[in-house]
Amino acid sequence: MPANLGPLYHVAEERYRQAITDEEKMAALEEMMATIPKHKGTEKMQADIKRRIAKLKESMKGGTKGPRRREFFRIDKEGAGQVVLVGPPNSGKSSMLKRMTRAVPEVADYPFTTRMPLPGMAQWENVQVQLIDMPPIAPETSQSWVWALLRMSDGLLVVLDAGDDDVLDQTENLFSFMEENNVFIKNDGEQGFKEKKAICAANKCDMPGASERIELLKEVIGDKMDIVPCSTATGEGLSLLLSRVFFEVLGRIRVYTRPPGKKPDFSQPFILDRGTTVIDAAREVHKEIAESLKYARVWGKGVFEGQMVPRDHVLSDGDVIVFYT
Ligand SMILES: Nc1nc2c(ncn2[C@@H]2O[C@H](COP(=O)(O)OP(=O)(O)OP(=O)(O)O)[C@@H](O)[C@H]2O)c(=O)[nH]1
Ligand SMILES: [Mg+2]
Which of 161, 163, 154, 166 is nearest to 136 (CA)? Predict the structure, then answer.
């Protein structure tokens, strides 16, 4: 019997192949288990995955009297995507989580305040993005779970301190330390497991001298990533930052469906990847719609009102679709 493994399973399997740490292997195996179609044709594979999980668990325990129990964090993804806050000590990562979500991280005027990851949901217009506050990225806090969380995320939000004269050195150290640990920032083309899309929050733009430092930052890292000046103290730039996270880092769009003759519900967007076509969107909405889809009409950018579009028409953010079956 053919296994008919879905695309999600293949993604998980590829992650397993590329996993570096035990934590990443475990997360990938669990994802494989969750996404493998459950039928007779995959029974052997399911048993095999279970066996590998059990074996890995055993080896991660590292014997009963082993002195070091390794910490492992996996944070389930929620909302439009999972973005991890990375940066040097004291740059304002926890302040950002506190300002943009309901989470209550500890914020303090000295480095190495944060020790554990902490997630929160940030609201931008009608979508939510999951942010994860992290310990600073530095040799003192380098543990395998830190790197695993970065690699398993959907993207990175690099928080830099534009109020600090050392910001350029800090940035250089940050990126080279990340690369030593197999996390690379890459915004163009395809991303592998180790390559992450990222945007930079040039934080503390309210402080004296910040705008000059931000100009310097743009010269040095501007070709690598977008830089958004912002301040968690005044709130400046934060909404723009979140919109860029949604569109550029996560690469998502929002579309709305409506049954023929009714009004769309703008509070309930379908969140899709940029580049999604009408037929892909129909599949997301309902398998049966996709199977019997004849044509669709779209109201939005790049089309005239209610234009009849073919199945391979690429959708834009804000489009309203009516499917005709
Ligand atoms: N002026 C100003 N101060 C800020 C801003 N954002 C954060 N701070 C201050 O910077 C200090 C460090 O903030 P945190 O949010 O704890 O920084 P962090 O990056 O989480 O620090 P670690 O957890 O140690 O890595 C605190 O005193 C904050 O009040 C900002 O936009 N403007
Ligand atoms: Mg912190």
Answer: 161
pTM above 0.90, yes or no: no
Secondary structure letter of residue 140 according to DSSP: G
Cβ–ligand 1 distance for 203 under 6 Å, the answer: yes
The pLDDT of residue 234: 98
Q: Domain extents for the chain?
A: 7-61, 82-249, 252-324
d(CA 275, CA 253): 9
- List the structure tokens of 126: 């009608």
Give the CATH H-level superfamily of domain 252-324: Beta-grasp domain (3.10.20.30)
> What is the distance between the alpha carbons of residues 7 and 70, in angstroms, rounded to a whole number?
32
User: Which H or E run includes 200?
Assistant: strand 198-203
Residue among 23, 140, 2, 15 nearest 70 (CA):
23
Atom of ligand 1 nearest to the CA of 98: 15
> How far away, in angstroms, is 70 Cα from ligand 2 center?
22
For 82-249, the fitting CATH number among 3.90.1150.200, 3.20.20.70, 1.10.10.10, 3.40.50.300 is: 3.40.50.300
φ, ψ of residue 100 to 5 degrees: the values are -100, -10
C-alpha 142 to ligand 2 mean position (Å): 15
Residue ranges of the chain with per-residue pLDDT less than 50:
66-67
For β-strands 184-185 and 227-229, DSSP reports them as unpaired
